[in-house]
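Late entry, evening session. Most of the bench is empty. Finally got around to the prediction I had been postponing all week. Sequence below, unchanged from the version circulated by S.P.
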Amino acid sequence: MISNSSWVLAKQVQQACLQTALAAYEEGGLLGLCQQGRFELAMDAIAALDVTSLTQLPPSGEEQI
């Protein structure tokens, strides 16, 4: 069974990927890219995402003191 902290980290990574992909897809639209180009830009953005920074964030719902 997955630990709670692992699950929280997985959800943070998932959310970061979704936000990154959406931002890149929208940027591609502003740049005039076709749908395929926008998709490729979004996939490249996910691949370049620095997930190590997520390990330094407090779990969702908890405040950093």
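Two things to note before I forget:
The radius of gyration is 15 Å.
The first helix runs from residue 4 to 30.
Will write this up properly tomorrow.
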